[in-house]
Amino acid sequence: MTTTGDLHVFLDALLARHGNNPASLLQMLCETQERQGWIAPPALTYLAQRLGIPRARIEGVAGFYSFLHLRPNGEYRVLFSDNITDRMLGSQALMEKMCQQLWLQPGKVSEDGLVSINTTSCTGMCDQGPAMLVNGRAITRLTHQRVQEIGHLIRNDTPLAGWPADFFLVEDNIRRSGPLLDNTSAPGDILRAAMALGGKGIVEAVKHSGLRGRGGAGFPTGQKWEACRNAPGAARHVVCNADEGEPGTFKDRVLLNCQADLVFEGMTLCALAVGAQHGYLYLRGEYRYLLEPLRAILQRRRDNNMLGKNILGQAGFDFDIAIHTGAGAYICGEESALIESLEGKRGVPRSRPPFPVTHGYMQQPTAVDNVETFCSAALAIQMGAENFRAIGTAKSSGSKLISVSGDCPRPGIYEYPFGVSVREVLDDCGAVNTRAVQVSGPSGICIAENEFGRKLGFEDLPTAGAFMVFDDSRDLFEVARNFVHFFAHESCGFCTPCRVGTSMLKQTMDKIAAGHGTRHDLNEIENLDKVLQTSSHCGLGRSACNPVLHTLKHFRPAYENRLKSLDFEPAFDLDGALARARQMTGRDDAGAHLKPEET
Amino acid sequence: MSDTFQLDGASVPFEPGQTVMQAALAGGHYIPHLCYHPEFKPHGSCKVCTVKINGRTAASCTMPAEAGLNVESNIEEMNGLRRTLVQMLFAEGNHFCPSCEKSGNCTLQALGYDLEVHTAGFRHLYPDRPLDASHPDILLDFNRCILCELCVRASSEVDGKNVFALSGRGITKHLIVNSETGLLKDTDIALTDKAMHVCPVGVILPKRVGFSVPIGARRYDQRPISAQALDDAPRQADAPHSPDTGGSCPACEGTP
After folding, report:
1. Do B44 and A537 count as a contact with CB atoms less than 8 A apart?
2. Nearest chain A CA: its distance from B176 CA (Å)
3. Which terminal Cβ of chain A has fewer Cβ within 10 Å, N or C?
4. Smallest CA–CA separation between A75 and chain B, in Å?
5. Does the structure show a pLDDT above 90 at A455?
6. One domain, residues A410 and A299
7. pLDDT tens digits, A308-331
8. Could you give the CA distance from residue B107 to residue B48 in angstroms, rounded to a whole number?
9. Which residues pair with A133 in a beta bridge?
10. What pLDDT does residue B245 have?
């Protein structure tokens, strides 16, 4: 236990390190959590006093992010990644086993305050799952044996630093490389080429390359940079979106690990193009283990004058990059929510217009791009717009990293020119008896065998990179249900349709799973979809029904087999209503249940 | 001469910086709304004011007015959507109108009647939301909270106190107060605060004034909300709020 004095000393140092800047609030909260394991009420009060922000607002920020705890949550906080690919690799049984071993229930803290076990959204380790986070650190390739060892380490209160290093090993698993992953340019080379072009020249080159955003939406990058460059503003910013939260996606993890210089090179030439002096890389909390290596690379670049003042000798070319970490909020991958989060607020998407290119970070012009986009932009400058354009298809130039996971013997990262067919990817990863592929994650599209000839690219199947394979042993209803739970968990809660609608959708799917579904429920799903589509504040709500609609389209029997033959079945479970009374009285005998004919 | 847009076939003039909602209300046209309040900066969370603009749906309270827009509001498609959204809000909280002090004065209830919400529509979630009766003069009944943030905005923008804020995420999002104990008695709220008078439902209530006006003789018992909302809307706001200009409220969500 720390004393009030200790806490204040810690927080004073923390505040000083962040220059007492309220925009760094989330970073301060993350660091407080790392030190204490949770954020105690006095810490919030003290931060509020020192920063001059209302306490309730700080509590609201802390309450928004899954990885921040406002109550003690165990000295060891174990989170099992709960993506469908983790489940397919047996994560649920592993979690059950661990709960048994440590004598606790999921979501509850052990009585001695030692440990809590729960699930979390996809941690981006689908190619080496099942995966978990322990106190924010990623552990991969879980087996019964590994989980048992972890249980022992926790019970013996062994600090994480003393755990076997191979637990924390994250492989790149690059299975097929192309111009991006094969890049061997020396740090600074591309930047020098860009400097020769000048800001306007970079914009023109990127425009001419046909590069489109790799985060999924595919907005032309050059056009974005040009708009940002031309927008009036006292300062401009470059933001790299490394909040790779779409379940099934892990390509940015690999790029940040093996091509970090290329990412920073892309950000720096973007800064030259738009006239920015400040850059931010928003790193998802799940990739916390990459923070120190990335900071070391930034420092090396500073030492080599590739960041800082008068970069590479060009007078007035000043630019530096700071890394902010997220704390478990998928929605922060949406660019305006990401900016809110960067400003130290709750990650709620903004009303648009205005767009970030004119009113972004601190209401100033901001270019927000995906990790892979910055790499591709750097590549386009290096190889020349024409050569870049020659790769891929007419409307989708360049190459694309695909994160392959699920039912295949060779999961990992595959780099293809745009235009590759789903079938080719399946063949390359060795998938057999494939029933369906989820392209671009839960918010993307589920396609069945008759569509495997379709091509990845903006003309046909746009993708941010996720490619989850399901063979004929899989139940696509359960896949959709997993995704629906994901959306309900990740809704920011700002707007009514998404906040309530995703929960209603989850309830309906659970009702069908429990064998109480009817045709009426399928109609209700379609109605919910209409409401979410037409009135949601952002893309999360608009795509929340997609997994259900797509699987209904292709695999309707997976749903219908579960339905009762009735037209209507009340959701209210009379016997279930007694569950709480049974729990309170500790009874589970026949007399504590309704007789079957009464239910 | 100001520009105009079309709203359900009527020509609506607008000033630069006005949103579709502001211009509509100023021109005497009602668009159903819940989290919008003419005195505060719009943020567009409830989505009840969703309209069709040139064929695409958008929240009218945050959508900047533009010349020549074709806005459809009073059409079955939009009213049906609003009905569902109001049903969702009822299902999300714990609303027992017959015993509620705010019954008859409640915007949510009035909208329910006006939009002809005759059924529950959804399974109710019955969340567990304890009351806060700690304050000697004020009761907070969170069961009825619809997360419109009007109290958050009023306390921040008008009272300068920031008594209220939101915490949590998704369906667990909830109203909190500004004190380390989490109790209202430890905040600096006062009965005279603006935040005391903006709750559209029955969350923030002064103690000891139960049912002073009998149910049946209350505001929306007289006339439906659609006939009254325009009374509240200042035709010419002192300073028109817009996403770009005034009323910046860093406290509430969806700040541009």
Report:
1. yes
2. 7
3. N
4. 22
5. yes
6. no
7. 999 999 999 999 999 999 999 999
8. 12
9. A79, A138
10. 36
Find, among A331, A336, A261, the residue nearest to A296 by Cα. A261
| AA identity, residue A320 | D
- Residue labelled with tokens 């995966």: A131
Which distant-in-sequence residues (6+ apart) come within 8 Å of B182 by Cβ? B176
Burial of residue A433, with CB atoms counted within 10 A of its CB: 0-12 exposed, 13-18 middle, 19 or more buried: exposed
A262, amino acid identity: L
Which pLDDT tens digit goes with each residue over A380-428? 999 999 999 999 999 999 999 999 999 999 999 999 999 999 999 999 9
> CB–CB of A179/A379 below 8 Å?
yes
Residues of B within 8 A of A71 (CB-CB) are none
Question: How would you write chain B as a 3-class SS string?
Answer: CCEEEEECCEEEEECCCCEHHHHHHHCCCCCCCCCCCCCCCCCCCCCCCEEEECCEEEECCCCECCCCCEEECCCHHHHHHHHHHHHHHHHHCCCCHHHCCCCCCCHHHHHHHHCCCCCCCCCCCCCCCCCECCCCCEEECHHHCCCCCHHHHHHHHHCCCCCEEEECCHHHCEEEECCCCCCHHHCCCCCCCHHHHCCCCCCEEECCCCCCCCCCCCHHHHCCHHHHHHHHCCCCCCCCCCCCCCCCCCCCCCCC
Residue A414's φ and ψ, nearest 5 degrees, are: -125, 125
Q: Within 10 Å of residue A156's Cβ, how many Cβ atoms?
A: 8
Instruction: Assess if residue A568 is contained within a domain.
Output: no
Whether residue A268 is contained in a domain is answered as yes
Residues A411 and A348 in one domain: no
Residue A16's CB is within 10 A of a number of other CB atoms, namely 9
CB B226 within 8 A of CB B30: yes
- Look up the CATH number of the domain holding residue A491: 1.20.1440.230
Range A5-33 average pLDDT: 96
Contacts of A199 (CB under 8 A, 6+ apart): A229, A272, A273, A274, A275
A71 is a domain residue: no
Six-digit token pair at A233? 């503003």
Instruction: Please check whether residue A257 is in contact with residue A301, taking contact to mean a CB–CB distance below 8 angstroms.
Output: no
Tell me: do A586 and A542 sit in the same domain.
Answer: no
Give the DSSP H or E segment for A81: strand A76-81
Q: A424 and A370, same structural domain?
A: no
Number of domains in chain A: 6
Do A492 and A553 lie in one domain? The reply is yes
B243 contacts on A by Cβ (under 8 Å): 351, 354
Residues A36 and A106 in one domain: no
Do A267 and A259 form a contact (C-beta atoms < 8 A)? no
Determine whether the interchain pair A57/B165 forms a contact, defined as Cβ–Cβ distance below 8 Å.
Answer: yes
Per-range mean pLDDT, top range of A24-33, A507-516, A555-564: A24-33
Tell me how close the Cα of A545 comes to any Cα of chain B, in angstroms.
Answer: 16
**Measured between CB atoms, does B92 come within 8 Å of chain A?**
yes
Q: Tokens 């991006």 — which residue?
A: A180
Please give the residue range of the domain that contains residue A381.
Answer: 176-389
Query: Where is the domain boundary, A42, A64, A86?
Result: A64
Residues A96 and A128 grouped into a single domain: yes
Mutate to test the interface with B, among A495, A518, A537, A568 (most CBs of B within 10 A): A495
**Mean pLDDT of all residues in B116-122:** 91
